[in-house]
């Protein structure tokens, strides 16, 4: 029995969560999954109900779950000067509380979406890459950090620091992910300039010896950024630190044509994960039935693959999404001047396609 905590969050969160639950229910009925689903509050909804964007009961429920499925948090009305009450603070506390150090961001070209990419269709045909970003160390968390004065001048200080344990664990996450894919890892650093990157490259190479079935290559980050827009299909898995991963994953997202199709996963050492779409809560369209649920549904697929070790079910969910896109179904954000379907209609179509793939 897999225990799944569902956090609907804010804005369009409850709407796209409802469609993800249809998929989970279908998997329970027809896919042989035994699931125990729980719900809790996070973000603005939790602030409204309990005055805390991450109530203690929610954090405990997350600890007790095998995986957490999160929709989105935030809205302009929660943009308070009190940072502790912002919905995003609850999300950061949740990531820290669960020790989620490995962020997995796939970038896959879905059927019929090549026209929406920033690159020519022939450049992205077959695009299917995964960026594995170290999430709890590096420049964003290193000490010392400060805004101060030095010799009479204002100064900002941040420190990029990684120890070998931090590097080796993110390396293993990348190699293990590659074993589920095409068995190629490209490590991205700046070892020609930074001592921390020299250590990064050394430790990545050492960990690679544990995975002889996976091919390892290295790129400097500036070249990696160029290669992402010049020939993105050369990559399978890219692994890098917090700062470089933040930048490269957003570049990769632009290649796909729509953030409405992009899921993500953040994992800890127990392979317990937080799964969420990369888009925001879109409060401007909340309640209109226009939200695109596909990134949320694809986040379910990632959960099946990485936390529940059900590759067969993950393949079925991802295949069902491709099926409906191949049929020409589009939500408002994908339709352009064409006809659009609503949130529930898209969710129903994916569920029907999934039932077909499961042989129901």
The percentage helix is 40-55%
Oligomeric composition of the shown chains: single chain
The SS-based structural class is alpha/beta
Shape: globular
Mean pLDDT: 94
Helix run count: 13
CATH topology of the largest domain: Isopropylmalate Dehydrogenase
Order of helices and strands: EHEHHEHEHEEEHEHEHEHEEHHHH
Question: What are the low-pLDDT stretches, counting only 5+ consecutive residues below 50?
Answer: none
Let me know the number of strands. Answer: 12
Offer a few descriptive terms.
360 residues; alpha/beta; Isopropylmalate Dehydrogenase; ten-stranded mixed β-sheet; two-stranded antiparallel ribbon; globular
Description:
The protein is an alpha/beta fold and 360 residues long. The protein has two domains: 1-109 and 258-360, Isopropylmalate Dehydrogenase; 114-257, Isopropylmalate Dehydrogenase (3-Layer(aba) Sandwich), CATH 3.40.718.10. Helix content is 42%, strand content 19%. Strand 1, helix 1 and strand 2 form a beta-alpha-beta unit. Helix 6 (164-179) packs across helix 7. The relative contact order is 0.17.
